[in-house]
Amino acid sequence: MATQAKQAKADTKNNHENTEEQADKEQQEAIEQIDEVQNEIDRLNESASEEILKVEQKYNKLRQPYFQKRSELISKIPNFWVTAFVNHPQVSALLNEEDEEALQYLTKVEVQEFDDIKSGYKINFHFGDNPYFENKSISKEFHLNETGEPSSKSTAIDWKAGKDLTKKTSQTKPGKKRGLEEQDSFFGWFLDHGDAGADELGEVIKDDIWPNPLQYYLVCCSLHLRLMRKELVMMMTWMRKVWMMRKVMTMT
Amino acid sequence: MATQAKQAKADTKNNHENTEEQADKEQQEAIEQIDEVQNEIDRLNESASEEILKVEQKYNKLRQPYFQKRSELISKIPNFWVTAFVNHPQVSALLNEEDEEALQYLTKVEVQEFDDIKSGYKINFHFGDNPYFENKSISKEFHLNETGEPSSKSTAIDWKAGKDLTKKTSQTKPGKKRGLEEQDSFFGWFLDHGDAGADELGEVIKDDIWPNPLQYYLVCCSLHLRLMRKELVMMMTWMRKVWMMRKVMTMT
């Protein structure tokens, strides 16, 4: 009897262990199956990204002739870009008086998204002859390499003698040598490659000004124009809201 | 002679005024034309958004059967969801001990994006019989109305007596009446409609956990499994990186 009882107890124990083992095994199998299903979901995500990229590329191409036409029209309006920049709250904060003078020679801005869009963008600034630098165009471009690491590079600015706006001549005390100090300037942005993955000015120009620069040009241009064209401003504001809303929505 | 000179001067002045007027007129025309071009660009943006929405909708449909299959498999693993939540750094920070106990009865989570996607989403939490509340499911949903204003609403939780985890019984001093105080609890989230446009927990569940809950379940489940299935974890981590990268890229 005692032996039988022991045997029964041992069986129960074995059964219990078997059941536990069985449950463990079933869970592991379920995990493996979830993993397989997850792979399918990831494949679908990948395809969705590719299709969306194609749509973006298609529309980037379709927008090009309009951007070109817009650039031509903008070139007829003196000081268009410097006005748009001065009227933009974030960009305006980066401009000192001399920047504004130099930017009066800015005739054309272009934003180019690279063909696969994900990999980066480039902003070109075209200038007329000016007393500050020799360059006809200055650009800054942003790249993501294959591992997703961001970097940026810019055109070197060929400043005319004593005109480098990123360096200011410090007030000299008598007997001390004059020195050059770093100065906060819009043009300092071309030297700054510290946060290429989230370059604030780059993104403001690309995502906020470039989609609709007219609204910033119009914000507070001459009172006359403002009153005469109130409807236009209202429409611009509305369009901007729609644009922002679209941005917010596509981000979610 | 004097009269002739005056006349010439007046002519010059008139010419000057005429030229200025002419320039003003040309600029206004250019602005109007920019506005027209901008309308075309906006129309293209609108079409691009619509096409992208269609792609998203198509893939949302294609993902459904996999999400369903995944839910079935997850239901075979006890404590899957509470483990995933506990292992998620941001969600974990919102859980107190009693929340974790209650969430052991959480059998199924579902995220539904509304058909036009932009307009919002709903998260359903399904529970088994439990000592805390009567509900079989609790949900919170987020909406954007036509003007883009966000709002949220939740299922009212039917707490069992004395079990409301959003209220705690305060320590009573002798002679004082016992009172109920607000308590920080995961379940308090269902009462919080203060920031429906950027609900942190809602977005973490929708955008971070729901796309791949297995990775969070696996992060630190039993050491045994961790060692045995190191490759899987590595693969999950890699998949997560790809997913995050994709997110970052689609945001730019």
Salient structural properties:
two-stranded antiparallel sheet; homodimer; alpha+beta; about 55% helix; about 250 residues; Arylsulfatase, C-terminal domain
CATH class of the domain at 56-221 in chain A: Alpha Beta
Q: What is the SS-derived class of chain A?
A: alpha+beta
Largest sheet of chain A: 4 strands, antiparallel
Count helical runs of chain A. 8
Distance between the termini of chain A: 71 Å
Order of strands, main sheet of chain A, comes to: 1-2-3-4
Q: What is the CATH architecture assignment of the domain at 56-221 in chain A?
A: 2-Layer Sandwich
Shape of chain A: elongated
CATH H level of the domain at 56-221 in chain A: which superfamily?
Nucleosome assembly protein
Strand content of chain A: 5-15%
Biggest interface, and residues per chain? A-B, 59 and 59 residues
Q: Write down the Rg of chain A.
A: 30 Å
- Unreliable stretches of chain A (pLDDT < 50, length at least 5) are 221-229
Topology as H/E string of chain A? HHHHEEEEEEHHHH
How would you classify the quaternary structure? Answer: homodimer
Share of residues in helices of chain A: 40-55%
